[in-house]
């Protein structure tokens, strides 16, 4: 009898090994430069190998093979579910070229996907879709994004924190569902991310393991940067300022890295003139909830009490052009602003030679928490705001012209806001340059 039970258990164990070695949740992100691509996926059991087979789309032949590795991920929930997260770096890719690929091992292979590499030079016009706060349920913008990805609308997608609601829920099964759901876009264009508050469980472990971003920051996708066309994009975590139970060292490390990265980016501005940051919680907003950008002073902007490390001065000092945020389930575009003072603010379009960074908050992709509303009177720092579900499109045409538009999914894809930013000169802002441009200031400590 005992022998029979052992045999049955052994059979079930072997069956499980066979059943759960299929690759799933395939997604890609740019490597440390445009000739590299990270390909990531999940298997529920160890497969020993992690391969990507790839080749030129035109030949329809997966004649190249890259080898990577997998990490065993143990979720922090009560069931301590495990999975294996595979990551393979493709290198020496030809620029501006479409590749086909599939992923897997001798235990199972995925479907075939494709992606187009970026050009490595700055003289092209990358196109982005940008949003935050997209969940599994009520992911209203996803269908439109899937269609547009198929139609080659985008060179990258930027997800500005808050995924799945939440990736750790139901012992990380919600994270699995989410990653399967976005495969339809994230396996085809680089899906670039930053962490939000909904990723905080178990020290952001679901986020850190599942997403593989460039390794030039902390190496765990919390902060990093990359060049794309005429733009240098910096992604970082606002959440290190809020979950202090995981330590404050990360605030110091991130701040020091941000400054070094900005110094380096400024030395390279002749080649990559635009600097854009993306992180989850905005410095300014006009929402009517209890978040710190509306009712209280933003600690991202001014720093933590007794500790500091506020980021507005740093970003102003090093001439960041655009700051992208999410967290508020709405869209809000501000006039150029620094230190609660609107610079170059007028109702004229477009922004011409703005005297301070431009903030855009776009956290309305759709999630179970629904919309966030606004305070009734629109403050004068705000150029446009809407709480329709939707997402932002961004394109950098060249060194002087960038274009932004807001897609309303509620209004069936209608463009509800659009604007150009025109800058003949990028770099460090100074009060001297801004003389006469900055008008009025917001009340202190609203
Ligand atoms: Fe959030």
Automatic annotation (TrEMBL):
Signal sequence extent: 1-16
Sequence ranges assigned to domain Calcineurin-like phosphoesterase in this UniProt record: 127-331
Protein keywords: Glycoprotein, Hydrolase, Signal
Enzymatic reactions: a phosphate monoester + H2O = an alcohol + phosphate
GO molecular function: acid phosphatase activity; metal ion binding
InterPro entries referenced in this protein's UniProt entry, alphabetically: Calcineurin-like_PHP (IPR004843), FN3_dom (IPR003961), Metallo-depent_PP-like (IPR029052), MPP_PAP (IPR041792), PAPs_C (IPR025733), PAPs_N (IPR015914), Purple_acid_Pase-like_N (IPR008963)
Keyword hit for Glycoprotein: yes
Domain Purple acid phosphatase C-terminal: 356-417
EC number: 3.1.3.2
Root EC class: hydrolase
UniProt keyword annotation of Kinase present: no
Residue span, Purple acid phosphatase N-terminal domain: 23-117
PANTHER family (UniProt xref): ACID PHOSPHATASE TYPE 7, PURPLE ACID PHOSPHATASE
Recorded family membership: Belongs to the metallophosphoesterase superfamily. Purple acid phosphatase family.
Protein name: Purple acid phosphatase
Gene source species: Dimorphilus gyrociliatus
